[in-house]
Structure formats: structure tokens, C-alpha cells
């Protein structure tokens, strides 16, 4: 569970970043809004990194079969699987997409948890947080959409984390 400081850090991350990370943070905001989400979750950030980064972490994701299209497809499959598990019919959007969320999305629970893991891991160091560390914190989740999408995409999470640890 995230404490108040972690929650504030995650909420600040949903603001306007600067520097080279701005592209994938803004892409995460856009992904959340276009998917009709009132919150930015860790999967939106993963999509943002996959679509707007040329860094080491994005390259590692690609080597493990996680480019933007495969993450998007795995998220769609995860959604349908979760609905089926709850006994709900599959949702399709023929010729239309989900309603676009207007306004700035808030930090969601999975993003707050990922940022709490990042903060704990980065606590004893100075300097900027790297893209690799952000991806490690996202993949550090044991429960939620990201671990389920990794399973559906047939990604060996431990192998991916081990590679990220060497970067």
C-alpha cells in the first residue's frame, strides 16, 4: 500500500514532465485519456515507453516481444479474459472507440504502487530516475493488469527483469 508521500510523488508525475522523459509521460496521459480512463495506470506508462522511447528499457521490452502493438493486443486480451472470468460478455467497439476521457487523468493505484516501489529502490541514491528503473518498478507488480498481460503475451517476467538489471 502506498503511503501519503508515495501518493504525492505519483500525483506529481502525472503533471507536465520536462526533458527526454516528457514524450513517454505525455504518451501515457494520452493513452489513458483515449482509452476512457480517468486514471493513468502502469500499463499506460508501459505503452508510453514502448511507443515513445528509444532507450535501453524500450529496447529490452522489444527483445522480449513487448512493442506497442503487442502490449496493446495483450491488454485487449486481458480485458476480455477478465470480463469472461466475471461472467460478463465481451466488449467490442465496432467502428467506434471507448469514450475519450476529458480532463487530466489522476494517478491510478497501479501507477502509485509502481512509483512507491521506485521510490523505495531509489531512496539511497542521488540523481535522476532512469527509464530502466521505471520499467523495473512497473514490472515489479505481482498482481494487476501488467502481470496478467505479461502472461498473455508469453513474456518471461523474471528473464526480462534480469536483463533490465544488467542495463
From TrEMBL:
Pfam annotation, one family: Clp_N
UniProt organism field: Frondihabitans cladoniiphilus
Domain of life: Bacteria
Name this polypeptide is given: Clp R domain-containing protein
SUPFAM superfamilies the UniProt entry points to: Double Clp-N motif
InterPro entries xrefs: Clp_N_dom_sf (IPR036628), Clp_R_N (IPR004176)
Residue ranges of every copy of the Clp R domain listed in the record: 27-78
